[in-house]
Amino acid sequence: MQNEQVRQGSQPSRRSWLYLFMVAIGTTMGVAGTLIGVAVMGKPSEAVAQEKKALKLDEGLIALDTDDGQRLLDESKAKQSYVPLSMYFTTQDNLAYCGAASACMVLNATGIERPVSPEHKPFRLFTQTNLFNPKVCEVIAPEKVRKGGMPLKTLGEVLACYPVKVEAVHASETDLPTFRKSAIEVLKSRDSYLVVNYLRKSIKQESGGHISPIAAYHEGEDRFLIMDVSRYKYPPVWVKAEGLWEAMKAVDSDSDKSRGYVIVRHAEK
Amino acid sequence: MQNEQVRQGSQPSRRSWLYLFMVAIGTTMGVAGTLIGVAVMGKPSEAVAQEKKALKLDEGLIALDTDDGQRLLDESKAKQSYVPLSMYFTTQDNLAYCGAASACMVLNATGIERPVSPEHKPFRLFTQTNLFNPKVCEVIAPEKVRKGGMPLKTLGEVLACYPVKVEAVHASETDLPTFRKSAIEVLKSRDSYLVVNYLRKSIKQESGGHISPIAAYHEGEDRFLIMDVSRYKYPPVWVKAEGLWEAMKAVDSDSDKSRGYVIVRHAEK
Lengths: 269, 269
Hints:
7-stranded antiparallel β-sheet, homodimer, 17% strand
């Protein structure tokens, strides 16, 4: 018995190869499982080390859940988007999915036919997973968005994969009065939605490029209400139109063009 | 060689057992992987076969995004919960997580310190994953909720794992006028939230036991606004107090007690 083992050890049989192969498969799957586990759960020590308390809001911004924030909403004459968007308000699934989350909110709000959501089968809802249908994946792969988000034009192209009319405008192509006028028109209508792409640090938030829908406009204060999809960072805020416009004029290094806005309208209207 | 194989086949060596063991592990992991894949992605053919168009709303219910629904919200004098809840309105992660989703909405709305969200590290938000901290897992395991949801008392116990004051009331222990009075008081306050547990079919919805927060009350119509966390099924609806109360009186077969409501208040107030 001992001799046989020695012989097989030095000249592996087909069975021994299979055995090694299975060990390798098992080890690989074990390592993969551990890595997935760590990726999903995070290492507790790391989470504690990196955790942040709530971010402070700059004084120039008005949070929706303050007395002033609610008063502005009550007084707004251009808030048709608010209820439909808040009904589908959602948190971006990961740090780069602001565009995907904004697209889902708007598509759900429009009332167009929704895809089946695998987690809620047989029911239907746009989610940040099923948004990426084969047509959208031809525009941009979810893995790519997960790594670097999506620039303005791509957001427009993603939305245009669904039966809605889409208009994507770089801030450099127009001016604040034109944007304000278009935005108010959209926010007074039940058939259209506005999504903005802006540089956070320009409105004194933390910190990079961001995308979120706009739900309302307050004329007296000249402020827009941003439904910020990073709900782990900030509440919805009322921002001065001029501040938002400056943040939309900032150049996106991914596209080398300014940021801007997307208007989504019902296709049949 | 052939003899050896025959011999080993009838009298397996330790190495053969190891080989069989690895094959078994490999097969099990393969099957598990396939099952997980199917569970996550769904079989396309199945999804198509089972998919449902949008559910119709019974005429006795008023959707928030209709003219009447918005008018009721405008007119409501007991809607302090609406803005904070809508800021954290969320879809239940799976068909049984209505209680988990409702708990997250309320906990986020209270403004108590939030746990780090692994997907948004280092930022913080109550999610239907991190809600299940070790203390909550002692009350109920997420796997158990995933299979059968959670009854009223368990929802109360889950919420009580966080620094809030919790009052869970079975409908059988009180009456509609008492509930209505408590509910209005909660909805007029900025420091408290109301979650209801009711039988859907009793208000002519599809179909079983359900949990969702209440955001507002309209006195003239005697209706409550349910922020339905099954956003893949129904919009938020205004339901008659009496209809909701009947649905809350229905017995939950899991607990053999009636359903009811949970009031969540800031702990320090």
